[in-house]
């Protein structure tokens, strides 16, 4: 029988007002509960003006940035430059050492979600890379009362264009009021969801979540089949669902680095200050 997913834990994002230029921030996946989210580490929701995330380093993990509103300018020290709009996604493999900037364009107030996706020890020294997935390039599958947009992974027989070193699935699901949809992903993937708009009921428990609601889902880590999550929309709604197979390695997340030991974190700081991450990320 197909494994039936349900809500495991759920909560609402709590926000703090930071002032200018980092106007507001909340953690969708808070850092003090990272053991629950493997292979994911944290996910932050940010509203910010230009100057908040200028040139900075990373090592040992991947980021997945979803733009909710505004224009996001990406600059990296390998000559990369791009502008992302609402609904666009950028993937970065920091690997052995990235140095980049993520800026609001002109006087925009940018609103983003950034997920940190871990790398196993065997991939932490891989080459830095970036990939943009523009909203129009992500395939859509329509169903009665809505559509699912696939950025990464395989859903509804289509494959998302995002190619990550650690495979994961990211879908954006829109439903009209009264619509029901059954979302299918492998049962061994740890998954969480974030409600961007409306009000939805999930699983056999019919757990009701509104905008800013977050939930982790039940899963069967040793399973080899598919799973189903039944979703019902009480209102016109939009939800993001992320999932991936746990890595199950001890790691340390400290500042802008994610490594397997504190010694490796300290080495990352020494390498950055010694100039081994390359020149600043500026245009």
From TrEMBL:
InterPro entries: Pirin, Pirin_C_dom, Pirin_N_dom, RmlC-like_jellyroll, RmlC_Cupin_sf. This is Pirin family protein. Signal peptide: none annotated. SUPFAM superfamilies: RmlC-like cupins (SSF51182). Residues 172-278 form the Pirin C-terminal domain. Belongs to the pirin family. Residues 46-117 form the Pirin N-terminal domain. Pfam families: Pirin (PF02678), Pirin_C (PF05726).
């Amino acid at each position: 029988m197909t494994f039936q997913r349900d809500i495991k834990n759920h909560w609402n994002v709590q926000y703090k007002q930071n002032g200018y230029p980092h106007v507001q921030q909340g953690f969708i996946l808070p850092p003090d509960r990272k053991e629950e989210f493997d292979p994911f580490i944290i996910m932050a929701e940010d509203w910010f003006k230009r100057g908040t995330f200028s040139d900075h380093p990373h090592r040992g993990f991947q980021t997945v940035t979803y733009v909710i509103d505004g224009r996001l300018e990406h600059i990296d020290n390998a000559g990369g430059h791009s502008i992302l709009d609402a609904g666009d996604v950028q993937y970065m493999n920091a690997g052995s050492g990235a140095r980049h900037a993520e800026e609001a364009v002109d006087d925009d107030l940018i609103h983003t979600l950034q997920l940190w996706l871990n790398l196993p020890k065997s991939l932490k020294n891989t080459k830095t890379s970036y990939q943009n997935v523009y909203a129009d390039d992500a395939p859509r599958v329509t169903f009665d009362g809505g559509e699912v947009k696939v950025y990464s992974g395989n859903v509804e027989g289509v494959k998302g264009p995002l190619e990550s070193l650690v495979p994961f699935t990211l879908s954006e699901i829109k439903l009209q009021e009264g619509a029901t949809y059954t979302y299918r992903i492998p049962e061994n993937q740890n998954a969480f969801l974030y409600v961007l708009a409306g009000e939805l009921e999930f699983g056999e428990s019919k757990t009701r979540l509104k905008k800013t609601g977050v939930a982790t889902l039940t899963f069967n880590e040793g399973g080899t089949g598919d799973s189903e999550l039944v979703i019902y929309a009480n209102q016109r709604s939009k939800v993001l669902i992320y999932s991936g197979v746990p890595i199950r390695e001890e790691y340390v997340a400290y500042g802008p680095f994610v490594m397997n030991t504190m010694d490796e974190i300290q080495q990352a700081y020494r390498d950055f200050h010694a100039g081994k991450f390359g020149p600043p990320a500026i245009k």
